[in-house]
Design goal:
mainly beta; about 775 residues; 43-stranded mixed β-sheet; rod-shaped; 10 helices
């Protein structure tokens, strides 16, 4: 039967073949299918051929509409599994390869699978309003719809490889920033960005990342480290004004919301910082937030808030140290700026001067300064104001309050400066204070590139004028000078005399100055490669001093110091003292001493006493206790010496010589040993109008008879005692009274008491140092045991 079906009998009609050629042999659906298949194949071929140029034309249209008038897209492949193209924005900006991958799963989700961008190269340029845009991008035309934006393309991941972005730098310089990054979408629809910045220069590394949420909220952060600033700048071929070096690390955090609110926060710290040979061993700490003001887009400007105090520290380097005043050449410099949380550290308003406001803390060694600082930059000038500042000079025991310092200088050379300084109160920290509260006020004029001069009026805080403080500093060679010139200070009761208590409460507590005058001049200079020098001169005329039981009058002389800190007064500068009353009337005094810091030495001291001369041996006043004291007396006139003694009927003639030895302590003399002897013969007579009861009769009456007109051949006086107030005085005389007992020679050994012994005790007991000097000597003893 199979053969019959295939081979019909002769004369029978052959059956139609199901796929025989010709329309007569097809059913309707077969004929439609036969026509559609070639058409679909032709359409697929047409789409495959037309898709790349159509897609390129559409993308070019979008880019040109956005402003890239030279944009061009060359598709190398575009099919059901993906595509590949090259994009050119202009001659210098392009993407070498854009690779798009998708598949059935990506089509069903309505997004691209993966985008890989290789060889991206873009340039940023600055606009007139200070913002940045891509080079070649056409500025927007006026109107709300001046430029359309391409629709966002959904994707699963984007990979950026071998990208470079050119950034503009000052001075028409440019920097190429190498980038590599990945951008992917997580399960919640958020975009996650991670990337690195390539080696701009040796020692540089940076990473960045961020998240874009579906509600438009953006969170991002970047960190970087510069291991060696010098190598980094050299790699950028950037010649800094100073050879900068050190290590820097930083973190930048950015955020933005869909409503346009933006915020930038950054941290920066550094160590081992160096600015040439001027500043070395530096450190830096900054944590701040930058926010737009006057609108989310920053049209009103920006404000910088310090989240932690800004700190900066350096040590003067070998180039700066010789140019600084004394005691500051090796002192660490510390700077701190602090603001309340709701106050900006730096305001950058649009179209208005930039302004910095903060609480300043500045220290340089043992010198400190703190107050409200304001700095404004406008029209090429910098204006600053420091108000209500506190000043601490610990090394010198000084503290100031209410300091005001304001002025301005030009940003361009030669940086002309004008400033005004006012310090209403500068106090001594000693108790009691060494000096009364002082005031300073004056002007500073000059150039920060050349020379700065200043003249300040010095006075008491209550308004009395004392003198001037002037000087200059040359920035070209570091040479400078400081001069203090005080008016003559007259003491006493007649105007315009001043009271010692108004000048120095510490000295006024120990002594008084009833009369005379002082004038002080001092100077200091520095720089030029030489060590700092200082000196001063104190002129004394007719000065009168009182301390304890001692009164000195008519003090004249000039004391010159060849170093002010620590103070040094060299030898060869005697003081004249007209009269010194210390129990005994010393006259025509000449005193010479030296001082080197705490080392006080009496080189010479001599006085006229009773017609003779009393000389004190050189004495070290700063040495460890006990300090030996030695004195000699020559040519003392006994008649004049006894005339000093208020004893009724006592007199005599002759000349005495002698010596005294003792131990000098801060509270007076100890272990006193003195001996005086006559230089030849003389007379001694004692004829009281009312004889003392003790000499009325007996052996004592014999002594009274002999002393009425005693002609001595020798006379000696001895003093001995542990303390000056407990001296034992002995008198030994040999001779005779011609009118008593037949002129028979006698030897008298008497223990003195009463007025004569009391006078001698008073003269020695008055040898005490002022309390302020005593404390200094005790301090020296502790330091030099």
């Amino acid at each position: 039967m199979a053969d019959a079906a295939l081979n019909p009998p002769p004369g029978a009609a052959a059956p139609l073949a199901p796929h025989a050629p010709g329309p007569a042999g097809y059913r309707r659906w077969q004929r439609l299918l036969a026509a559609a298949v070639p058409a679909l194949l032709a359409l697929a071929l047409a789409v495959g051929l037309a898709a790349p140029p159509l897609a390129g034309w559409y993308l070019e249209r979008l880019l040109r509409t956005a402003g890239f008038t030279e944009a061009r897209v060359d598709w190398r492949r575009l099919d059901a599994l993906g595509g590949e193209a090259r994009l050119r924005l202009d001659a210098e900006q392009h993407i070498e390869r854009v690779q798009l991958d998708w598949g059935p799963g990506a089509w069903r989700q309505g997004r691209l699978g993966r985008v890989r961008i290789e060889g991206l190269q873009l340039r940023l340029v600055a606009m007139d309003d200070g913002r940045y845009t891509l080079a070649g991008l056409r500025p927007p035309a006026p109107g709300p719809q001046a430029r359309s934006s391409p629709p966002p393309l959904p994707f699963t991941a984007v990979e950026l490889v071998d990208a470079r972005v050119e950034l503009p730098l000052p001075g028409a310089r440019r920097l190429w920033l190498p980038l590599a990054a990945t951008l992917h979408r997580d399960e919640d629809g958020r975009l996650q960005l991670e990337g690195t910045v390539g080696a701009l220069a040796p020692g540089f590394g940076a990473r960045f990342g961020g998240t874009l949420a579906t509600d438009g909220t953006l969170q991002g952060a970047a960190s970087f480290e510069i291991a060696t600033a010098a190598a980094f700048l050299e790699g950028l071929d950037w010649a800094a004004p100073l050879a900068v070096d050190g290590r820097l690390r930083g973190i930048v955090r950015a955020s933005a919301t869909a409503d346009g609110a933006r915020q930038l926060e950054f941290e920066l710290d550094g160590d081992g910082l160096r600015a040439g040979d001027w500043l070395v061993d530096g450190h830096l700490g900054l944590h701040a937030r930058l926010q737009p003001t006057g609108g989310a887009d920053g049209a009103g400007g920006f404000a910088l808030y310090a989240l932690q105090p800004l700190t900066l520290g350096f040590t003067p380097g070998p180039a700066l140290a010789p140019r600084l005043p004394p005691d500051l050449d090796d002192a660490p410099l510390q700077l701190g700026l602090h603001t309340p949380d709701d106050e900006p550290l730096l305001a950058l308003p649009a179209g208005a001067p930039a302004r910095l406001q903060a609480e300043l803390g500045l220290s340089l060694g043992q010198t400190g300064l703190g107050g409200a600082l304001s700095v404004t930059l406008a029209e090429g000038r910098v204006h600053w104001s420091l108000r209500d500042a506190l000043l601490g000079l610990q090394r010198y025991g000084l503290a100031g309050a209410g300091l005001s310092f304001e002025g301005e200088f030009g940003q361009a050379a030669p940086h002309v400066l004008h400033a005004r300084l006012q310090l209403p109160r500068l106090e001594s920290l000693a108790n009691p204070p060494w000096h009364a509260a002082l005031s300073l006020a004056g002007d500073l004029e000059g150039s920060l590139s050349e020379r700065l001069d200043w003249t300040l009026a010095l006075g008491l805080a209550d308004g009395a004028r004392l003198g001037t403080l002037g000087g200059h500093h040359a920035f070209s060679d570091g040479r400078g000078e400081l001069k203090l010139d005080l008016l003559r200070l007259g003491f006493g009761t007649a105007p315009p005399a001043v009271a010692l208590a108004a000048l120095s409460p510490a000295l006024a507590a120990q002594l008084s100055v009833p009369g005379g005058g002082l004038r002080l001049q001092a100077r200091a200079d520095w720089g030029g490669g030489a060590a700092a020098r200082s000196g001063g001169e104190l002129r004394i005329d007719g000065l009168e001093l009182r301390f304890g039981g001692v009164r000195a009058r008519g003090i004249d002389g000039v004391l010159r110091a060849d170093r002010l800190w620590p103070l040094r007064i060299p030898a060869g500068q005697p003081l004249r003292i007209a009269r010194l009353d210390a129990g005994l009337p010393f006259e025509d005094g000449r005193v010479e001493f030296t001082l080197d810091d705490t080392q006080l030495r009496l080189r010479q001291a001599g006085f006229t006493l009773a017609g003779g001369r009393l000389e004190l041996a050189p004495l070290r006043l700063d040495g460890p206790a006990p300090r030996p004291l030695a004195a000699s007396a020559r040519g003392l006139d006994l008649s004049r010496l006894l005339a000093i003694v208020p004893v009724d009927g006592l007199g005599g003639t002759g000349t005495l010589n002698g010596s005294l030895a003792a131990r000098l302590e801060a509270d007076g003399l100890h272990d006193v040993q003195a001996q005086f002897a006559s230089d030849g013969s003389g007379t001694l007579h004692y004829t009281p109008s009312t004889p003392p009861a003790a000499l009325a009769d007996g052996q004592a009456g014999f002594v009274l008879d002999v002393l009425r007109d005693f002609r001595y051949e020798s006379l000696s006086l001895t003093l001995a005692g542990e303390r000056a107030e407990s001296l034992a005085a002995g008198l030994n005389v040999r001779g005779a009274n011609p009118q008593a007992y037949g002129g028979h020679p006698v030897a008298l050994n008497l223990n003195l008491s009463g007025a004569l012994a009391g006078l001698l005790q008073q003269g020695l007991d008055s040898y005490r140092l002022p309390e302020t000097v005593r404390r200094r000597l005790e301090s020296s003893d502790r330091e030099n045991p």
